[in-house]
TrEMBL record:
Protein name stated in the entry: DSBA-like thioredoxin domain-containing protein
Signal peptide coordinates: none
InterPro entries: DSBA-like_thioredoxin_dom, GST_Kappa/NadH, Thioredoxin-like_sf
Coiled-coil features, chain-numbered ranges: none
Superkingdom of the organism of origin: Eukaryota
Organism: Polyrhizophydium stewartii
Phylogenetic placement of the source organism: Eukaryota, Fungi, Fungi incertae sedis, Chytridiomycota, Chytridiomycota incertae sedis
The DSBA-like thioredoxin domain, residue ranges: 5-206, 224-409
Entries under Pfam families matching the protein: DSBA
Amino acid sequence: MSPRLTLYYDVVSPFSWFAFEILSRYRPVWGIEVDFVPFFLGGIMQASENQPPANNAFKARYMIVDLVRTGGLINVPITGFPREFPVSSLRAQRLLTYVKAHEPSKLAPASLALWRAYWGDGNSIDKEDVLVQYLTPVLGAEKTKAYLSTSSSDPATKQKLTQETKRATDIGAFGAPWIVVEREVDGKPVVESFFGSDRFENIAMTLGKPYYGPNPGMGSKLFAFEVLCRYRPLWGLEVDFVPCHLAAIMKVSGYKSPTSSPFTANYLIADLIRTGAAIGVPIKGYPRQFPLNTLKAQHLLTYVKANDPSKLVPATLALWRTYWGDGVSIDKDDVLLPCLTPVLGADKAKAYLAVCESDPATKQKLADETKRATDIGVFGAPWIVVEREVDGKTVLDSFYGSDRFESIAMLIGKPYHGLNPGTGTKL
């Protein structure tokens, strides 16, 4: 059985556009079969009880900056949110389902035309005049009118879109794009799912294929802490690692934990283990107590940074290894003490643990750093801020997540060689 990829997408999703473009570029490079499948994102969100990221004001502000920036990296011309956002994509997805069934060679150009209409030019894709304008160059005037007329009412088309949407939810899809990799391992079929447009290095690793960035023809070359530690000497940059309290940030921003939905929780752990393997971080599953209040651990790290700053990195890594590597809760002294003794020494570990939670300066510092984060729009972790000078003025750019290092490298004009730069891995 040769490996096969399926991309479930909806043209209302800009991240689907990114994934569609990148997979189209890699299909000939990897020599792999890719099935592009329109589905209805509105139905997926309802079935999985997921919420659009733009529903949260903090995420919406970040999302548009990240979309424009990532679009620049991938060569996808997104300049902002469409004039009507969000909009129902049901008519557009039925149309694409009809095109795939009756003229499959036109599916890619028709899909790209609708993305350009909505995310490139900001025009609503639920209006017939817009659909006619953008699809006529692809399908011709007569076919465009005929396909539009038929696709909305054709029972077979409606049923097919419903079936593909259900098929996606049955395998755990909770958003778009959703990428499924089917392959054979030891004579048995294995199916793995990837969410988003930022998992192509993981997919390449799964397939045993090279990944050269989103533009393979151009030769561009949780985990955030590890990756930044690896790139700090290569990029010659000052990096400030700042503990903050994630629970407080999520309360202020109104952002819910991704594990609050069983769909996202099931995907998240598979993705964590897989990404951990790619980065060399030993995550085996959810900790035995999850989620967990990290206030004590973050007070401790804040105290370590203030009083023994050279120990901040090894102390932080020790806590991650204990919680995410070994699955042991880090809210108890009997766990924290043996965890930190190899880093701080027995006497300091005891002293720091005794002082950190009651020390007013430490409590205030953690509160200040957490507020500073929410003031610049932080809604989750990790959150990376790049400060640089442009035309004599200080410019701040924010990046959310552990999968934006190629964008950061592009922004600061530095090379990016994948998650493990010392091993020759390429992104």
